[in-house]
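COMPLEX REQUEST
Ligand: tryptophanyl-5'AMP
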Amino acid sequence: MTEAVHTRRVFSGIKPSGGLTLGNYLGAIKRFVALPEQGFETIYCVVDMHAITVWQDPSELKHATRELTAAYIASGLDPDQSILFNQSQVSAHAELGWIFNCVTRVGWMNRMTQFKDKAGKNAEKVSLGLYAYPSLMAADILAYHATHVPVGEDQKQHVELTRDIAAKFNNDFKVPDFFPQPEPMIEGPAKRVMSLRDGTKKMSKSGESDMERVNMTDSAERILKKFKKAKTDPEPLPDNLDALKDRPEARNLVDIYAALSDVSSEAVIAEYAGAQWGRFKPALADLAVSKLVPISTRMAALMDDPAELDRILAKGADKAAAIAEPILAKTYDIVGFVRSHQ
Ligand code: TYM
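STATUS: Structure written out below.
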């Protein structure tokens, strides 16, 4: 089975662990929503099992799961067109994840830079789940024989590991091409949205200060304030991107502007060549407000009816399971598990 036989199937996921940032929106959600129109079958997941690799308060986890579901829909995802569900409701993820734990080598896991960053000096105290996480991520993708995985740059290594796991499985069990080699899709100007206070650090939900990030639920006032206070340098904007090589904060703001307005960073630089920050920052802040506030308003309205969100997740889980279960059953046969109990 090659790409010609596998359909063009997209799988991606986001953790419901606290608030969603502009990085999640531009690097993931906004791009996910555009893919059905480009001829992809799309499966999007609220990866709650990934979230619990670090402690989550149970009631906050439920809230964050529904809020992320609302964020997908408020950003334009149509749950009748894309499959939208939460991971723990489709048991194939955990089951295939275990098989992959037995395929993946410890040496491969030891090279995962995100684990090293997250565990830091505390590596002995973090959960085993945090360490095994990339193997579960491989199961998420491969349980659907997904061929394309849209992610931000920080997830690239995990998608590469997924390819290695697929290749080793196919090779160990002599089933060439059973699992496809999924392609990471890391595109556009927002591959890596940086902190508003330090252009060398990724914008993340866990950053120390709230002023470092824009949250999808921030009010207009808060968004305006964060861009106004964003770190920059004394120079005006140049007329080409090369000149921003050593100006990470400036480059980040140009890239954010480009991603929000669906143009290239080159086009933004051409429009604002020579502009002072006093002109560019308010334009960027207004643009961000005009894009984000309608989404957060829709999210709030959707959150008023959690039962409806749960129904959407249940329907999505049924559709997801209908794809994953036959692939898991075939995997069990390949591995040599007796399946007499149907
Ligand atoms: P997570 O929840 O950390 O992030 C979700 C998505 O948002 C992207 N992202 C960013 N993109 C650009 N700039 C940023 N500052 C930024 N911050 C986050 C991430 O790259 C990601 O695409 N392990 C994954 C979730 C996952 C997954 C999967 C993804 C689980 N299973 C299977 C794809 C396929 C994660 O922790 O993403």
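REMARKS: The chain has two domains: 3-185+305-335, 210-301. Strands lie at 9-14, 41-46, 83-86, 148-150, 183-185.
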